[in-house]
Amino acid sequence: MKNLIALIFSIVFSTLVSCSSTDNCTKTITIPSRNIITPTGSAYIPESQLLVPCDYVATPIQEQAPLQNFSYEVLNFTFIPDTGNNTNRLKFDIKLNNPNNFVIKGFPYFTVNTDGLVSSSGFINGATSTCTEINPNSSCIFSYDKQASLNLGIIQSIQLVNVKYYLTE
After folding, report:
1. How would you classify residue 79: left for phi > 0, otherwise alpha for psi between -120 and 50, otherwise beta?
2. Which residues pair with residue 35 across a beta bridge?
3. Is the pLDDT of residue 1 over 80?
């Protein structure tokens, strides 16, 4: 009987001691900065800190990476700085190649140099074919044709720098 009471007392005591020592335990974790890329653009999220319970397990954040086994071919890339209608016009057709043995689902991301300013975009607004899915060992032609007002500013030249393909699945 004494052993049973001693056993019950030690279980209750150890439970109370272990609970009270971890209930208020917190730690600060640092969430690293990262870029998030979507078909409509990208966003930079700066580094931040978060107060979490001590038993919180942090899952590493992996930077979004483009598809490695991917190529493209520029069929045409034309920029007209002044169409005569108070607009400029960017038109291009780029063949996106999937040499993999599986379907890729995602979006192309174009980097262009506009009068010395390098930027990237999915060029969805103005695209007539977006290539969000490319079958195994095949290609898709991304087509873009859009005019923009010269009232927003005069652009002298736009040049394609590169194309990457990001998976969504």
Report:
1. beta
2. 44
3. no
Please state, as a whole number, how many other Cβ atoms lie within 10 Å of the Cβ of residue 108. 25
* Sign of the Cα pseudo-torsion (71, 75, 77, 83, in order): negative
What length is written for the chain? 169
pLDDT(81) > 90: yes
Q: DSSP 3-state assignment of 152?
A: helix
The answer to whether the beta carbons of residues 96 and 13 sit under 8 Å apart is no
Amino acid (one-letter) located at 61: I
The strand ranges marked E within the chain are 26-31, 34-38, 41-45, 48-53, 71-80, 87-98, 104-114, 117-121, 127-129, 133-134, 138-149, 158-167
Residue 144 DSSP one-character state: E
- Quote the percentage of the chain above a pLDDT of 70: 86
Distance CA 73, CA 100 (A): 16
Q: In the prediction, which pLDDT does 45 show?
A: 84
The Cα 10–Cα 2 span in angstroms is 12
Q: Are 103 and 137 in contact (CB under 8 A)?
A: no
| Dihedral sign computed on CA atoms, order 68, 70, 73, 76 | negative
